[in-house]
């Protein structure tokens, strides 16, 4: 093709047709420019198509991870609510003013209330991977990006309150199990085969009358309610993101 155009130019020059040669040369330049523009347009189209496919795959991975996170979040909130109810029960501060007696404070209930502590959080592996590899720009929807920023904020706030509760628990509340009761009977809920007949039984009503213990468990109850509130805030962000991403994916079909 290049040889063909070159021959035409040479023939025009040889025949002394300078004007026609210049017009031809300009036309040839225009054709080259048009060819370049078409090539760039095709390249841009292919690049946009590639980015669109990658964005969709990214959103699908995020949605899958968020649906798993939602299940984890709901389970963790349920466990926190159970801990809250156990603490309310042994402290005898039920809203219906039902008096607690030793018959309903079993070793297992006391252990669950005092010993249990959930520090896990929902996982956001897909988002964290995108962030660490600087690929968040793949998501074009600004609302989704803003929601992830809010989710990260809620996650950090939850982590702070979990660490505060854990710190108080390790320093103060675990001391109750070490110094104020006989812990061996509580082990039976984990190891049913052990014999605790010769172990002294715990009088939990008497233990729970000690001001220091009541205050410490009251602190744990307060922290637990704060944790529930922060977990619910995070759960709301997770569900909001799921709705946004599902909508975005439906619009991209």
Distance between the termini: 43 Å
What fraction, in percent, of the residue positions are helical? over 70%
Number of DSSP strands? 0
What would you call the structural class? Answer: mainly alpha
Q: Spans with pLDDT under 50 lasting ≥5 residues? A: none
**Tally of separate domains:** 1
Rg from Cα: 35 Å
- Please describe the biggest sheet, giving its number of strands, its sense, and whether it closes into a barrel: none
Secondary-structure element order, N to C: HHHHHHHH
**How much beta, percentage-wise?**
under 5%
Q: What is the general shape?
A: rod-shaped
Mean pLDDT: 85
Count every helix, treating DSSP H or I runs of 4 or more residues as helices: 8
Structure notes:
The chain has helices spanning 2-14, 18-91, 107-115, 125-132, 142-179, 184-187, 204-207, 211-251. It is mainly α. α1 (2-14) packs antiparallel against α2 (18-91), α2 crosses α3 (107-115) and α5 packs antiparallel against α8. The longest helix is centred in the first third of the chain and has 74 residues, at 18-91. The two termini are 43 Å apart.
Observed structural traits:
membrane; DUF6090; 253 residues; mainly alpha; transmembrane helix; 0% strand
Topology:
Blueprint: H1 2-14, H2 18-91, H3 107-115, H4 125-132, H5 142-179, H6 184-187, H7 204-207, H8 211-251
């Amino acid at each position: 093709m290049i040889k063909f155009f070159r021959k035409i130019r040479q023939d025009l020059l040889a025949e002394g047709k300078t004007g026609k040669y210049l017009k031809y040369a300009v036309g040839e330049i225009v054709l080259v420019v048009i060819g370049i523009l078409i090539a760039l347009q095709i390249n841009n189209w292919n690049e946009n198509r590639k980015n669109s496919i990658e964005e969709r795959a990214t959103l699908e991975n995020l949605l899958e991870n968020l649906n798993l996170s939602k299940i984890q979040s709901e389970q963790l909130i349920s466990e926190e609510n159970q801990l809250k109810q156990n603490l309310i029960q042994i402290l005898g501060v039920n809203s219906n003013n039902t008096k607690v007696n030793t018959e309903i404070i079993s070793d297992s209930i006391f252990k669950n209330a005092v010993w249990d502590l959930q520090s896990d959080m929902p996982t956001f592996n897909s988002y964290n991977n995108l962030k660490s590899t600087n690929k968040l720009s793949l998501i074009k929807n600004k609302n989704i990006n803003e929601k992830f920023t809010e989710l990260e904020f809620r996650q950090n706030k939850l982590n702070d309150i979990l660490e505060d509760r854990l710190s108080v628990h390790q320093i103060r509340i675990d001391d109750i199990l070490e110094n104020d009761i006989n812990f061996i009977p509580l082990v039976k809920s984990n190891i049913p085969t052990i014999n605790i007949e010769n172990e002294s039984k715990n009088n939990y009503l008497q233990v729970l009358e000690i001001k220091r213990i009541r205050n410490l468990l009251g602190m744990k109850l307060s922290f637990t309610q704060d944790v529930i509130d922060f977990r619910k805030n995070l759960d709301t962000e997770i569900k909001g993101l799921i709705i946004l991403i599902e909508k975005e994916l439906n619009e991209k079909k």
